[in-house]
Amino acid sequence: MDRRLLKHAQTIWDYHQLNHQLEKADAILVLCSHDERVAERSADLFKDGWAPLVIFSGGAGSITKHLWSEPEAEIFARIAIEKGVPSDNILIENRSSNTGENIRFTKQLLADRGLELQKFIVVQKPYMERRSYATFKKLWPDKDVTVTSPQISFEEYLQFYSNNALSSADVVSIMVGDLQRIRVYPARGFQIEQYVPDDVIDAYDQLVAAGFTKYLISPEPDITSP
């Protein structure tokens, strides 16, 4: 990518991040994916005393079903245990295949165990913070939530944090696809509405025109902004 496209990608990266201030919670809810650093971040949060319970949610997603032969949550839980999280402080939901199912299946898991929790720290990839928040608040609006992710810059993420099976172009394409979903999913009942500034829309349009379309919903829905 040239400098112009990198600048547009940075704009979208910044928009996706919420920069929430952490508060102590009842549980750390980890939305699993291909990015194993998310598991490491959740383990650090647990060890720092932010919550007494870690819930790993994830089965086989659209990307990991081509990368791994076991559920995301099982892999992430193993990483957390290796980093010092006791297995007794871990719950696993290993059937979900998207963010909405992460929330719905976790709700059911807790209900089945008779656990009534109010405050959650959601841990996700840096460029999935906003969409995770919007989905959580749509599907579980009566709960308190803050969202966090591995503390890393966009440049560092492209260099070191993307999965070995994904290129930098793949990461930017995923970011573009997540922004598209932020814009179209509220009308489908999947997320709460999120304001998208004009400069972010322009960055999206420029990256789509440059071919970062691999993870877009197809065909492209009508997302013309007023």
Please describe what this structure looks like.
With 226 residues, the protein is an alpha/beta fold. It has 2 domains: 3-14 and 154-209, no CATH class; 18-148, HUPs (Rossmann fold, 3-Layer(aba) Sandwich). Helix content is 43%, strand content 10%. It contains 8 helices and 5 strands. It has a 5-stranded parallel sheet with strand order 3-2-1-4-5, with helices on both faces. Strand 1, helix 2 and strand 2 (54-57) form a beta-alpha-beta unit.
Short description:
The protein is an alpha/beta fold and 226 residues long.
What does the secondary structure layout of this molecule look like, with pairings?
Elements: H1 3-16, E1 27-31, H2 37-47, E2 54-57, H3 72-82, E3 90-93, H4 99-112, E4 119-123, H5 129-139, E5 144-148, H6 154-161, H7 168-184, H8 198-209
Parallel strand pairs: 1-2, 1-4, 2-3, 4-5
Helix pairs in contact: 1-7, 1-8, 2-3, 4-5
Estimate the mean pLDDT confidence: 92
At the fourth CATH level, what is the homologous superfamily of the largest domain? HUPs
Number of domains: 2
CATH class of the largest domain: Alpha Beta
Within the largest sheet, what's the order of strands?
3-2-1-4-5
Spell out the key features of this protein.
226 residues; alpha/beta; Rossmann fold; 8 helices; 10% strand
